[in-house]
């Protein structure tokens, strides 16, 4: 039982941040391991762990967002605007989205689409001659990119960072803004599922899973930042395209 939990928690921690779609990998993994304990409880505890990982990783930057004054509060407004598209879709289509997570037949297509999005990062990254700051319109467009990641197989971080580079945000700002958007996205998703949580969340097995997911999450954040700053995000696209081909041929 602990071995299965370790595998699932480690995969969640790694893929939650790397642009390969944690939801797509979790759907595959749970089918492969035949392990889906207590409905949404495991999903909630692992998302809380990765949320803590982001909080620890960005602690100083997050604190600065809430200590700004007057007109300098603009970053919070941009985060709110970027959250709107996915928020609307999540609320209106929550039941239909949950049913999608029970299927695996569409994963080759969504992994392929994710790969193409990430490969376009290379083009968008190279075309940037002059980097510009974020804006309300850019935030909304990035938010539309984030809404695509509601589908398992499409990466939230991958789409938001890629769209950000196409809109000429710097690599570091694209990375930072992508994970600022993670907080309302994850909290909103958890709010829709919190009613399904059970007392198992306090058991040693789930505490173990939380810890594993947190540790791997922090490590993957450092790795992703390095890959984005070096302009090598597209390499993950090659991986998801190969994964799509593997799923189609097996």
Question: What can you see in these coordinates?
Answer:
With 250 residues, the protein is mainly α. The chain has one domain. It is 74% helix and 0% strand. Helix 1 runs parallel beside helix 12 (204-229), helix 5 packs parallel to helix 11 and helix 9 crosses helix 10.
Cα(first) to Cα(last) distance is: 27 Å
Which class of secondary structure composition applies to the elements? mainly alpha
Outline type: globular
Strand count = 0
Strand content: under 5%
User: Major β-sheet, in short?
Assistant: none
Tally of individual helices: 13
As a whole number of angstroms, the C-alpha radius of gyration is: 18 Å
Percent range for helical residues?
A: over 70%
The number of distinct structural domains comes to 1
| Rounded mean pLDDT score | 86
What are the low-pLDDT stretches, counting only 5+ consecutive residues below 50?
none
SSE pattern, N- to C-terminal:
HHHHHHHHHHHHH
Task: Spell out the key features of this protein.
13 helices
Short description:
With 250 residues, the protein is an all-alpha fold. The protein has helices at 2-15, 22-33, 41-57, 59-65, 74-92, 94-100, 107-127, 136-148, 156-166, 171-180, 182-193, 204-229, 234-248. The protein starts with a helix and ends with a helix.
Describe the secondary structure blueprint for this structure.
Layout: H1 2-15, H2 22-33, H3 41-57, H4 59-65, H5 74-92, H6 94-100, H7 107-127, H8 136-148, H9 156-166, H10 171-180, H11 182-193, H12 204-229, H13 234-248
């Amino acid at each position: 039982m602990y071995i299965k939990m370790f595998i699932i928690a480690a995969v969640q921690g790694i893929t939650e941040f790397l642009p390969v779609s944690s939801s797509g990998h979790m759907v595959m993994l749970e089918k492969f391991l035949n392990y889906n304990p207590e409905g949404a409880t495991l999903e909630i505890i692992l998302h809380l762990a990765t949320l803590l990982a982001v909080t620890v990783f960005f602690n100083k930057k997050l604190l600065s967002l809430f200590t700004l004054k007057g007109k300098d509060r603009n970053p919070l407004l941009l985060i709110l605007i970027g959250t709107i598209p996915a928020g609307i879709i999540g609320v209106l289509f929550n039941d239909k989205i949950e049913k999608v997570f029970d299927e695996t037949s569409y994963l080759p297509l969504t992994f392929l689409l994710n790969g193409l999005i990430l490969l376009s990062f290379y083009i968008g990254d190279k075309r940037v001659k002059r980097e510009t700051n974020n804006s309300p319109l850019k935030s909304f467009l990035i938010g539309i990119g984030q809404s695509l990641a509601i589908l398992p197989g499409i990466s939230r971080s991958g789409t938001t960072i890629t769209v950000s580079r196409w809109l000429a945000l710097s690599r570091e700002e694209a990375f930072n803004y992508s994970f600022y958007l993670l907080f309302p996205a994850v909290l909103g998703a958890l709010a829709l599922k919190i009613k399904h949580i059970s007392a198992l969340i306090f058991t040693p097995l789930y505490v173990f899973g939380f810890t594993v997911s947190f540790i791997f999450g922090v490590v993957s954040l450092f790795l992703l930042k390095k890959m984005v700053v070096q302009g090598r995000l597209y390499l993950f696209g090659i991986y998801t395209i190969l994964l799509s081909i593997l799923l189609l041929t097996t």
